[in-house]
Design brief:
The complex is a heterodimer.
Chain A (H helix, E strand, L loop, with lengths): L1 H13 L8 H22 L10 H12 L11 H32 L1 H14 L8 H7 L3 H26 L3 H9 L4 H39 L4 H10 L3 H29 L7
Helix pairs in contact in A: 3-11, 4-5, 4-7, 4-9, 4-10, 6-7, 7-9, 8-9, 9-10, 9-11, 10-11
Chain B lengths: L26 E10 L6 E11 L4 E5 L6 H9 L6 E6 L2 E2 L7 E5 L10 H11 L7 H8 L15 H14 L4 E5 L7 H18 L2 E6 L2 H7 L2 E5 L6 E6 L14 H27 L1
Helix pairs in contact in B: 2-4, 3-4, 6-7
Chain lengths: 276, 282
């Protein structure tokens, strides 16, 4: 029996008997703790939490929603609402990308265009996207296009600002090297400025997508008619707290998936970077 | 950025007839002055500098750090505009960068977003077009076969510098401006690169202006070594290196090499002391 004693001592020194928590376990623990905290807040009625649902009821509501039960009077399921929100984000971000990147490249490369365009844009930049909702509803023909416009505003500025910043920080050495190899200004723009700016553009687009989700929910709460933001606000009015929670989970999931997609695409486009 | 200068529009210099073959490359620094005024502080980097580099000559520009060597090179490259005086290449004053004047720096300037092959083909793509297989053969010569599709960040420092040299050669410049291209490399890689450069230069006969602070490197490589004074930069002395070619790194052990080195060192020492006194006095 003496060998087992020695083994035990050895193991204690090496920490061999107590397995270190793996990364996955620690991540799982984080979620379990969160759910526990949520449950406790509801049970003990901290703040107004006694009027809210706990995780167990939410899970049941989520499963029901996922099974395709209608969420609102119109009979739309959670999938339809999610698709509407995602569609708005996709359209708005696409337009923002198509407008902000060329505009940013122009402002960044040309002093003259910068003077002509940037001061006006700077005035609008600090205005929160949601503050555009009333004017969007007044000016645009439909509520739906109004929401898309507001989401566009949310995604537009981070992409624009990061593109401009990216162009301005392109190292002069690369421009000189290209010129010494015989590149004219058009080639320098295409082969040096644009690729050198790409990492900043990717950063801008990820920030833009994040802001687009924030904006779409806010806009849908006010003027959606359909969409995740709309069901969250409807549920608040009808005091269906489990639907509020389900809506929040849906938004979290969609935001996570789209952020991951942008990250992967950006990673691929800038695969030449040392950090990759 | 303007395209190539028209060699016919200049009549102010009495240099040899402008080349049409792209195979000459005479450089004349005519009373070159370059001053900077960063935040009101007046810095004279180069003062009244004259230097003639013949076509197809290999000249090393040697000097203490901060003596304005790089400023001279950037004026020749067309990156900097001289405050006074001018740089004349084959009878034409330099105003802009030009593919005829290729440049290599200590820190390579390969485009990180292009593969090695794309980098090497960049120059040809900008003018006469890419010749199939040429990039591969140049990369092969530089010992970089198999790295065509790698990105610069995937290569070691020595390999990056070889790729940079390959990119320069693929562009076939008449003049190669090299600013301490090998000083960041380890001793062995440096020796290999020096050998490679000599090989290429002896074969293609381009003009080379090679900046270095390494006396032995300057003598090993160059036909003439121009030694610069401490700031403000001027040419203090020019040493003819009368050592037969082809040279290999063994020549550093010969008596003639030692003599030339001592001569260069004494000029540099004198300059370094003067520079120190200047600083003490200031």
């Amino acid at each position: 029996m003496s060998t087992t004693t020695i083994e035990r001592i050895q193991r204690r020194f090496e920490g061999g008997t107590v397995p270190m928590l793996t990364k996955r376990v620690r991540q799982l623990l984080s979620i379990v703790l969160f759910l526990g905290l949520w449950s406790a807040l509801v049970r003990f009625g901290v703040l107004g939490f006694d009027t809210f649902v706990g995780p167990e009821t939410t899970l049941a509501a989520l499963l029901e929603a996922l099974s395709g039960t209608a969420m609102t009077e119109g009979g739309e399921t959670i999938y339809e609402h999610a698709a509407f929100s995602a569609f708005r984000v996709l359209v708005a971000v696409t337009i923002a990308v198509l407008v902000a990147i060329p505009l940013g490249l122009t402002i960044g490369t040309s002093r003259r265009w910068e003077d002509a365009l940037f001061p006006a844009l700077e005035v609008f930049r600090p205005v929160p996207p949601v503050a555009w909702v009333p004017i969007a509803l007044l000016l645009l023909p439909t509520f739906r296009s109004g929401v898309i416009f507001v989401v566009f505003v949310g995604a537009f500025f981070p992409i624009l600002i990061n593109t401009i910043e990216g162009v301005k920080t392109v190292e002069a050495e690369y421009v000189q090297a290209a010129a010494s190899l015989g590149a004219g200004s058009r080639d320098i723009f295409r082969h040096v400025i644009v690729p050198a700016t790409l990492p900043s553009i990717v950063t801008g687009v990820s920030l833009g997508v994040g802001l687009a989700w924030i904006t779409v929910v806010a806009a849908e709460m006010i003027a959606g008619g359909v969409g995740i933001g709309y069901i969250i606000f409807q549920a608040y009015r009808l005091l269906q707290t489990e639907v509020i929670a389900v809506g929040m989970i849906a938004i979290g999931f969609l935001g996570y998936v789209s952020a991951a997609a942008v990250h992967r695409t950006g990673h691929y486009l800038t695969r030449w970077q040392e950090t990759n | 950025m303007s395209k190539h200068d028209d060699p016919t529009d200049d009549a102010s210099t009495a240099e040899p007839a402008p080349d049409t073959t792209g195979k000459t490359g005479a450089i004349a620094l005519d009373n070159l002055n370059k001053t900077y005024d960063p935040e009101g502080e007046h810095v004279v980097a180069v003062e009244d500098m004259d230097l003639d580099v013949a076509a197809e000559e290999f000249v090393a520009l040697l000097g203490p750090s901060g003596c304005g060597k790089s400023t001279v090179l950037e004026c020749i490259a067309g990156y900097l505009e001289p405050t006074e005086g001018e740089v004349v290449v084959d009878g034409t004053p330099v105003t802009d960068p030009d593919p005829k004047r290729g440049v290599v720096f200590q820190e390579n300037r390969l485009f990180p977003w292009k593969t090695i092959k794309e980098n090497v083909e960049f120059g040809p793509r900008m003018h006469e077009g890419v010749e199939e297989g040429r990039a591969e053969s140049i990369l092969d010569e530089m010992g970089l076969d198999g790295f065509e599709d790698a990105y610069p960040s995937e290569l070691s420092g020595g390999m990056q510098q070889r790729a940079e040299l390959a990119r320069l050669l693929a562009n076939d410049p008449a003049i190669m401006l090299m600013d301490e291209p090998f000083s960041a490399l380890d001793a062995l890689t440096k020796e290999i690169m020096q050998k490679k450069l000599l090989e290429v230069w002896e074969r293609d006969n381009r003009t080379v202006l090679f900046i270095t602070h390494d006396v032995e490197e300057a003598i090993l490589l160059a036909d003439r070594v121009a030694i610069m004074t401490a700031r403000p930069g001027q040419i203090k002395d020019v040493i003819d290196v009368d050592i037969d070619r082809p040279r290999d790194p063994e020549v550093v052990t010969t008596d003639r090499f030692t003599e030339l080195r001592e001569r260069a060192l004494s000029v540099i020492r004198e300059e370094a002391e003067r520079a120190l006194e200047q600083e003490d006095g200031a």
